[in-house]
Amino acid sequence: MIAMRTPSLALIALALVAGCGHPARPAPTQRMAVCVAPGASHPTGRVTIEFRRAGAVIASGSIPVGGVFAAPVPADAAVDAYADDKLVGSRPAGGGDVYLSEAGCPDSPW
User: Fold this and answer.
1) Would you say the pTM of this structure is higher than 0.85?
2) Mapped to the 3 state alphabet, what secondary structure does the chain carry?
3) How many angstroms separate the CA atoms of 65 and 43, rounded?
4) By residue range, what is the domain housing residue 37?
5) Do 64 and 82 form a contact (C-beta atoms < 8 A)?
């Protein structure tokens, strides 16, 4: 007959503690930036920028027209950029740092 053994409380406690205390690694991110230049659709004022992953907003901000909005985005996900609810561009999953801009915007956001 096989005897069942029950682990001691010390071993159970050790197993529980072994998984604690190690901070979770943050998910890798990459930079994404958008600039909407002054033009017919946005002559002056402010524009609301949203970065969306599968339709869910993951970063947003309101910037002056001609300004740059930048934020870290998940490296492993496709991300769409919207200006005042209009799609202005996308970054594919694993696409690296992306700067979506129009003529009249700064050459580089970083």
Assistant:
1) no
2) CCCCCCCCHHHHHHHHHHCCCCCCCCCCEEEEEEECCCCCCCCCCEEEEEEEECCEEEEEEEEECCCEEEEEEECCCCEEEEECCEEEEEECCCCCCEEECCCCCCCCCC
3) 8
4) 26-100
5) no
- 15-24: pLDDT as tens digits: 555 555 667 8
Residue 23 corresponds to which tokens in the numbers above?
């901070």
The length of the chain in residues reads 110
Residue 40 placed within a domain: yes
Q: Measuring CA to CA, how many Å separate 40 from each of 2, 24, 37?
A: 82, 47, 10
Q: Is residue 12 part of a domain?
A: no
CATH number of the domain bearing residue 96: 2.60.40.10
The mean pLDDT of 26-33, rounded to a whole number, is 92
Cβ atoms of 93 and 76 within 8 Å: the answer is yes
pLDDT, residue 54, reads 95
Q: What is the mean pLDDT of the chain?
A: 85
